[in-house]
Each structure stands twice: as structure tokens, then as C-alpha cells.
Amino acid sequence: MSTTTSTFQTIDDLESGQQLLVRIDINAPVEDGVVQDNRRFARHAETIAELLADDHAVALLAHQGRPGRDTFISLEGHADILADHLGQEVAFVDDTVGEDALEAIGGLEAGDVLLLENARMCEEELPEEAPDEKADTEFVQTLAPEFDAYVNDAYSAAHRSHASLVGFPRVLDAYAGRVMESEYTANSAIQQREFDGLVTMVLGGTKAEDLIPVIEEVDDTVDRFCLGGIVGELFLRADGHDVGYDVEGTEFFDHQWEDHADTIEGVREEYGDRLHLASDLASETDDGERVERAVAEIEKETSYLDVGSDTADEYADLVAESEAVFVKGALGVFEDERFADGTVAVLSAIAEADCFSVVGGGDTSRAIPMYDLEEEDFSHVSVAGGAYVRALTGEGLVGVEVLEAVAESE
Ligand SMILES: Nc1ncnc2c1ncn2[C@@H]1O[C@H](COP(=O)(O)OP(=O)(O)OP(=O)(O)O)[C@@H](O)[C@H]1O
Ligand SMILES: O=C(O)[C@H](O)COP(=O)(O)O
């Protein structure tokens, strides 16, 4: 693998004993309102431990979910998971930028860690705007003076132009943490690789809006795309099948369809045989059993939770004959064993094949330990999802670009 030298300052360049604002990405699965551990916590704990060992006081900024979704919750439970990984207390304050937050930050001493409340609970965090506009927000202007420097360890969120990611590095001296550094190096190197054999991209999960632009951008380098999850159903809908519609209170499909239907149509026409869609899907019966149905016989008023076994076999065969396989997003709701077949079939085929492979996604990468697969059987398992596939296209990540701009101006 070729090496890529980072062009930002890292925590190696920090003087000891400072008051630091550290952006991490512990956006994680939520089950019944309770946050679940994923690989991101352990990875960020390593950066934090290193900072504490260097006598810094650390305030952590992070987000969880998106407003309006049931994964949009407080970070209180995240502090406990992080504390377990870190082996020390992580204080939590249910405020991000108000008086309580400022008081908690003011009380920090060397070796302390404080997690601030979900940054997306601040109105100014989310709208995607240019870094300078984000730097001008009250959010950034209020918090920044409390700190000596800013560390961004959130590579997996670096594709978002949000205040906590791009605003602070415009006003504070800024450094990359260890996760930012290692994911940047690994993902940039992957983008530069060339393959003689077949390259397959397996795309699933819930965030179709992140994947559709990627499908267009990597057009020349990927020989076939295997689609599942929400993005797969949206393509089936474009094919005229009765799936890819919101039913039973889901909010995955219709808004993404409204935004991307034209692009999906265009991609279908242009890519033809290179696009592989599910030929069967799995859902749950009233008795809680998994049942499969051929796509031709699909019913509109049903939630489909996995690809069916014919599709899983087909995708596994395509993986087996590939020289390189890139996975982003799960083919089904693998957290429920009944709907893990598609995801596990593809991951197992990769683990058994002699191919170069990358599996990305904060949620998706959890399937590897969950189904007793070995991380060593994959070339790279990224804690990043949207950011990793965007990096594959060669497009810059705004959160990385602002760090590079700081380094250039030094
Ligand atoms: N048919 C489906 N219906 C509902 N959820 C699905 C379906 N198929 C897959 N999923 C969900 O997709 C999730 C994983 O993909 P997703 O793109 O949302 O996140 P990710 O892998 O963490 O990537 P990122 O890091 O970009 O968030 C899994 O948690 C899985 O339950
Ligand atoms: O999980 C992720 O991919 C990042 O935390 C970004 O989250 P978002 O897709 O909700 O912006």
C-alpha cells in the first residue's frame, strides 16, 4: 500500500498541559433508546488517553443521530461507555454552550475529561455552511475562548461542514488526533490503489444520500455494484417494484426518493448490467419469523429488513471472484440475527476470499465481531462510513481541509 503523508499538525505538535477542545465521533447505534458500544469508542479512547498522559485537560464535543430521528439522544450514556474504555471517569454535562457547560469547562484540571451534550442539540451546529460562517456562530465564538487549542479526531464526520468540525479550527490552533491521522492515511492510500481484476462495491445501510453521489464518482474504477438496505430498495422502486416506500412509520425512503429519484434513474440507465439489485427480500411475519419473497411478488405495505437468500448467494459469488471489495452499509438489519443473512454472507465471502477489502461504517463494522468474523481477514476496517466512501472518490473532506489550512498558515 502506498503511504500518504498528512499535511496537518497532529497531537505530536501540541505543547503539554493545555486546555483542549476535542471533537470525537461516537455516533453509535441506539437500541430501545439506549446507546450501544461500537468500535469508535475504543479508538477515540486511545487518543484521549494519550492526551491525558500529556497532562492536558480535555472537553469532548460529539454528536448522536439527527434531529427528528429516534437515534437523536443525549450523550449521557456515551460518557459511561467511554469511561469503561478509558478506565477513568468521564464527567458529563447536559449542556453544550450555556452557563452549565462553561462552568464545567472552567472547573477542568489536568487529567480530567468532560463530555459536553450532543452538539446537534445546538441550532447552529447543523446547517451545512462554509467554515468561516461556522466560525462566526455564537456556538463557536462562545466556546473557543475557553480553550488553548482544538483537536479533531472525528475523521468519520469530516465530510460534514458543521460548526464543531469546521468552525473551531478557523479560530483556534488545530491538530489532528490519532483516529483522524490513521483513518486519513489508510483511506487516502486506498484511493490511490489500482487493481487489475474485478472491483466490487457493496452498498447498503440507511444513508442513500451519501452513496448515490459516490456511485457516480467511482464509475470508472468499480466493475459492479451490489445494492441492499435502503439504497437497494430505492433502486428497486425505480425499477417499478412495490418497495422503497415508507411504511409503518419509517422515515427512510420518501424524502431520499424525492431528493434523488432523477439521479437514481440516470445511474440505472447508464450503468445497466453493472448494477446488481436484490432478486428477493426478507421481512418479518406476525409470528416474528423471517419470511422471504421474490422481488416480483413483493407487497408495498411491508417493511423489508434483509436481502433474501438467492440475493445473498449471488452477492457472495460476485465477491468471491473479485480482486477488491469495498463495503459501505449493511444489506439488512444485521443487529437482529434473523435479518443478518445478507450482510454476513457478503462479509464471510470476503473473509474467505483472497481479495483486497475494506469495510466501512460505524454501524456496519460492528457486524464483524458480532458474527465472530476476524478483523484480520479484512484489509482495512474503517470506523468511518460516509467519509470513507467519499475519500474513495478522491474528493476532499472539508473537516480535513480546514486542518490542512491551519497547518499551511503556520
Ligand atoms: N432494510 C433495512 N431497513 C432498515 N435498516 C437497515 C436496512 N438495511 C440495513 N439497515 C441498517 O443500516 C445500518 C448500517 O448502515 P448505515 O449506512 O446506516 O450506517 P453506518 O454503517 O454506520 O455508516 P456511517 O458511518 O456512514 O453512519 C445498520 O444499522 C442496519 O440495521
Ligand atoms: O456516523 C457517521 O457517518 C457520522 O457520524 C456522520 O453522521 P451523519 O451521517 O448523521 O452526519
Number of domains: 2
CATH level-3 fold name of the largest domain? Rossmann fold
**What is the helical fraction, as a range of percent?**
25-40%
Largest sheet: 6 strands, parallel
| CATH fourth-tier homologous superfamily of the largest domain | Phosphoglycerate kinase, N-terminal domain
Overall shape:
globular
How many helices?
15
Mean pLDDT score:
94
Strand order of the largest sheet: 5-6-4-1-7-8
* Rg: 21 Å
Short synopsis of the structure:
Substrate binds at residues 25-27, 40, 63-66, 120, 160. It is found in: Cytoplasm. The chain has helices spanning 39-53, 76-86, 99-106, 131-135, 138-143, 163-171, 178-191, 208-217, 229-238, 254-271, 309-320, 341-352, 367-370, 386-392, 398-409, and strands spanning 19-23, 30-31, 34-35, 57-61, 91-93, 113-116, 149-152, 174-176, 199-203, 224-227, 275-276, 280-284, 290-294, 306-307, 324-328, 356-360, 380-382.
Spell out the key features of this protein:
Rossmann fold, 15 helices, alpha/beta, Phosphoglycerate kinase, Phosphoglycerate_kinase_N, 410 residues, glycolysis, six-stranded parallel β-sheet, EC 2.7.2.3, 2 domains, binds adenosine-5'-triphosphate, globular, ATP binding
